[in-house]
Specification:
With 187 residues, the chain is α/β, with parallel strands linked by helices. The protein contains seven helices and seven strands, in the order αββαβαββαββααα. The chain has one domain. A four-stranded mixed sheet has the order 4-6-1-5, with helices on one face. A three-stranded mixed sheet has the order 3-2-7, with no helix packed on it. Pfam families: Glyco_transf_49 (PF13896). One of its GO terms (biological process) is protein O-linked glycosylation via mannose.
Length: 187
């Protein structure tokens, strides 16, 4: 598949095996159940301009992907570095030996957010791939997101786990981890 070959070449050119980097694949979504997948970035941009695609979660949770900087991505021809921001949860390509997902965050909420935070704490570069993209297709809400929305208990548990995670980051990374807690409190 040409896309797979392109990504493999990107990874080799960026010397990912020797480098601590998380390659961000910009995410888009459609509200249509049937979609002809764009064959190129130019085709995707055209679909975006026509309104058949949107940047991912743009109308629900823009903070999750805003640091990707879609305006910059439109014209980017080389990978570019972005900074961590609160609630950033991009889809990434990383080496196998990167930190694993924190298993406390099962179900809905904070699995990708905590993972990116940990990568940032370990000084991974967050690099947006200029010619990569993924498209999220509509589907029925998951059982866990329904529980999250309907249950104050579920949301309370998630908050407790987030606090534990922050404490663990502080223990592991010391003063460097303070920015995550400070950012969280200022929201």
């Amino acid at each position: 598949h040409p896309s797979y070959c392109h990504h493999r070449n990107s990874i080799q050119q960026l010397e990912l095996p020797q480098r601590k980097a998380a390659l961000i694949v910009p995410a888009f979504e459609t509200l249509h159940y049937r979609l002809t997948f764009p064959k190129s970035k130019a085709e995707l941009l055209s679909m975006l301009d026509m309104g058949s695609l949107y940047t991912f979660r743009y109308h629900v949770w823009p903070k999750g992907h805003a640091p990707t900087d879609y305006a910059k991505w439109r014209t980017a021809t080389v990978p570019y570095r972005v900074a961590w921001q609160p609630d950033f949860e991009p889809y990434v390509v990383v080496r196998r030996d990167c930190p694993k997902y924190d298993q406390r965050f099962v179900g809905f909420g904070w699995n990708k957010v905590s993972h990116i935070m940990e990568l940032d704490a370990q000084e991974y570069e967050l690099l947006v791939l200029p010619n990569a993209f993924m498209i999220h297709m509509p589907h029925a809400p998951s059982f866990d997101i329904s529980k999250f929305r309907l249950s104050a208990g579920y949301r309370g548990c998630l908050q407790t786990l987030r606090e534990e995670f922050h404490q663990d980051l502080s223990r592991r990374y010391g003063a460097a981890a303070l920015k995550y807690l400070t950012a969280e409190r200022s929201l």
